[in-house]
Amino acid sequence: MTKIQTLKDLISNILKKMFFLNEETAPDKFMETFFYSTEITDNNFHILLLFSDKLACEITENFLGFEDYDQEDVLDCLQEVVNMITGNFIGICFPEHDKLLPFPTSSICDTSTLSVEEYESDYLFYHLQPLKILYKEIK
To answer: What is the mean pLDDT of the chain?
Structure first.
């Protein structure tokens, strides 16, 4: 299994178990409109996830268990998401890794400046909202 497929499977499982979201079949057409990004960079890899506003808010609401949250809560929750994913990913793909995770970052994303040619990418869909997964190895 490729690392991008492993990452996709991990994300799907974590969003299902921890955030109560079930992956859906990709729609025939969808808008690539992303509002939030979260990422983590290690000596071996870079993981970048892009979320629509609606999906990021649903993840946050499901995680916190209430609807009264602000944008900082969303950004914090997305950092927690990428932390969970990365910890599991390292255990599977880099078992000799020292297990110390770098601190993730989250932000309101500006995809106009994002250069994705060097990344492997894939999508997951939840309520017709895309989650874009970007991954690259660092040599």
So the answer is: 91
